[in-house]
Input
Amino acid sequence: MKSIILRELFWIILSFVISLILGFIFLELLELTSTDRSLKRIEKVFSVQLYIIGCIVSFISIYIVRIIFAAIRMFVGK
Output
């Protein structure tokens, strides 16, 4: 039981770190950067909101892929 909890904790931390990286990639793919050197306040808020959305979507996507691989491994193992 302890190994299952540790494995899930490891995956949560790893998924969180990967989602932070994928959040930046998400923002880069959208190319919503301003041409000005300094961003307006509303642009800063919008950028942070988009980053948070990208992180959440990435975290959920990582867990969905993990569940799919676990299901495939379970079906193949039988």
Observations:
- The radius of gyration is 17 Å.
- Residues 5 and 46 are 36 Å apart (CA to CA).
